[in-house]
Amino acid sequence: MKKSALVTGASGGIGSEIARCLRRDGFEVLLHYNRARESAQTLSDELGGAPFYRADFENPSEIEAMFDEINVMCGGVDLLVNNAGLAYYGLLTDMKPEEWRRLFAVNVDGAYHCCRLAIPNMVRRKAGRIINIASVWGLCGASCETAYSAAKSALIGFTKALAKELGPSGISVNCVAPGVIMTEMLSSLSDETIEALREETPLGVIGKPSDVAELVSFLASDRAGFITGQVISPNGGFVIS
Q1: What is the DSSP letter of 121?
Q2: Has residue 241 been placed in a domain?
């Protein structure tokens, strides 16, 4: 029987590549999206009709409804990839309180709700994998991305603590903290800024979504059975700790 994997934010650049890799690895992939239904439909068709579900992570009841559908269909998920994310670029003093709350709702609260709903079935099975997608900015912070850095840092702390909590139940929890990856999230940056980021990266290149997806693939595999509570950052040497 195939293992099932839910990828949140699967309609985006990194999420869609993660879904492709997991499908290649033999998982029954379940796709989450919020606004980009057309992209989710296209990805579903590419993956042979993978089920896709809409949920606004600012609304916990929609997340619960999504898991209700998933539980009926396959009795829960074996792998949860918390990839859904929202960015904000600008001075903290220019950020409105509702923008702060929305960013945390998507990046942090969404992961909490998904984990809360996925964990009971994993505990019953005494097996499961949770992989949270954070950011290198959660490790070192970024000017004009204070809220995003804070949210991703929270996700890193969440990962470490949850790994200790769930380890005795045979469930691993790890975090991937990508560096600069060429996705739509970079569209707000100028060519000069992107070039500067490339020059700051020791390997001299901007990362690709596949660089993140292949790491997720490894952490989801049996080869990573003894790895939990870790934060791994594919960043080309941008941050070395």
Answers
A1: H
A2: no
- pLDDT tens digits, one per residue of 69-115: 999 999 999 999 999 999 999 999 999 999 999 999 999 999 999 99
**Separation CA 32–CA 89 (nearest Å):** 25
Is there a contact between 81 and 103 (Cβ–Cβ < 8 Å)?
Answer: no
Structure tokens at 49: 């009709």
Residues 32/9, Cβ–Cβ less than 8 Å? yes
The domain that holds 132 is classified in CATH as 3.40.50.720
Q: What's the one-letter identity of residue 239?
A: V
The dihedral region occupied by 29, where left means phi > 0, alpha psi between -120 and 50, and beta the remainder, is beta
182-195 residue pLDDT tens: 988 777 778 898 89
Assess if residue 239 is contained within a domain: no
Active site residues: 148
Q: How many domains does the chain have?
A: 1
Q: Is residue 10 domain-resident?
A: yes
Q: One-letter amino acid identity for 201?
A: T
Predicted TM-score (pTM) of this structure: 0.96
For 214, counting Cβ atoms within 10 Å of its Cβ (0-12 exposed, 13-18 middle, 19+ buried), the class is middle
CB of 91 closer than 8 Å to CB of 145: no
Work out the number of other CB atoms within 10 angstroms of the CB of residue 100.
16
